[in-house]
Amino acid sequence: MDPSLPQNLKEYSASLTTIKFVRPLPLLRGPIPAGSLSDPSSGPYILAFKDIASWADAYKSCESKIIFQCEEGARIRCAITASNKCKLAWWQSLISWKSMDLTERERCEDIEMEVCLVAAKEKCVCFAKAKCTTPFLNARIAVGEKEIMNKRVERMVHAASLPEESKWVYFIGSDNLGGSKPSVTNSRASQYLGHDSQLQM
């Protein structure tokens, strides 16, 4: 064996020498052309969700993570509150009050804990919705080719129902019926959904 080679070649195997990197998280939003109706001061590109499905997934993820963190914090607070409510008062030990049975105290803490967690869960849900609703309703969603084609079809069907003398007026300035670039490339979620109540997903 060549003395210049290492004695234990297994230490230089691919499994031991390859560095494994954590797969990067996918971007929630990506850059898209701003469109002619967007604020010019924002630049030629804006960040938008690729479709309504990715927006909904991100909203649900945001809401669930906030609820989880809120409930974890509430669990600690409820445990402390239940312990304080069920322990003997300091003055009872001074007057030789009999010590509380541990089984009775445990039952008391379980009841107090359950009541506290139920109330906290409702508050956490409301808190998560309050934190996620406004920014997600203001977020932009990309308008894909499917939406653009649907708009074109709707306009063409509507135009076909008009009197012959009115059609030419309807088509004046209609860029979306031709092959030109659409003036709208995105829409705010509040405009896309139409109403806040649709956030109840």
Description:
This protein has 201 residues and is mainly α. The strands form two sheets. It has a two-stranded antiparallel sheet with strand order 1-2. The protein starts with 13 loop residues before the first helix and ends in an 8-residue tail after the last helix. 55% of the residues lie in helices and 7% in strands. It has helices spanning 14-17, 52-86, 90-94, 102-138, 145-160, 164-171, 189-193; strands at 30-33, 45-48, 140-142, 186-188. The relative contact order is 0.13. It has a domain at 49-138.
Short descriptors:
two-stranded antiparallel ribbon, mainly alpha, two-stranded antiparallel sheet, 201 residues, flat
List the helices and strands and how they pair.
Layout: H1 14-17, E1 30-33, E2 45-48, H2 52-86, H3 90-94, H4 102-138, E3 140-142, H5 145-160, H6 164-171, E4 186-188, H7 189-193
Antiparallel strand pairs: 1-2, 3-4
Helix pairs in contact: 2-4
Helix/strand structural class:
mainly alpha
- Measured between the Cα atoms of the first and last residue, the distance is 68 Å
* Total of DSSP H or I helical runs spanning 4+ residues: 7
Elements, N to C (H/E): HEEHHHEHHEH
In short:
By secondary structure, the protein is mostly helical.
